[in-house]
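Title: Comparing notes on inverse folding

I've been comparing how different people in this forum approach sequence design from structure. To keep things fair, I'm posting one structure and asking everyone to reply with a full sequence. Here's the target:
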């Protein structure tokens, strides 16, 4: 049996931009992507701590070291610049393996979105 488990989490990053006129996604600083073991085009859930919105989108690679967290396309209607969000991805794995799996959970500086 396979189950879905938490694979990666960026806990509390600040939205630096919203771009409505875009095809859709979340752009994330490449440093943050690597730290959280996220890859481009990976599906993620975005949870907005300010307004309770939850959405599903995919990752685009942002400029390394920029601190960029940008919601693009329709997601720009759900999240505001300055909101604090949690970005989560999940993975399917064997039930027994899931018991010992340890996800990548990253706690960046919420003010700058830089790694501590």
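Reply #1:
Here's my take.
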């Amino acid at each position: 049996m396979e189950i879905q488990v938490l694979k990666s989490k960026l806990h509390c990053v600040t939205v630096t931009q919203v771009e409505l006129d875009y095809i859709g996604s979340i752009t994330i600083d490449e440093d943050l992507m690597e730290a959280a073991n996220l890859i481009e085009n990976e599906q993620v859930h975005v949870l907005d701590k300010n307004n309770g919105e939850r959405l599903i989108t995919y990752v685009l690679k942002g400029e390394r070291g920029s601190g960029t967290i940008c919601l693009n396309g329709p997601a720009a209607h759900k999240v505001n610049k300055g909101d604090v969000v949690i970005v989560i991805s999940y993975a399917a794995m064997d039930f027994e393996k899931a018991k010992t799996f340890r996800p990548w959970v990253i706690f960046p500086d919420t003010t700058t979105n830089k790694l501590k």
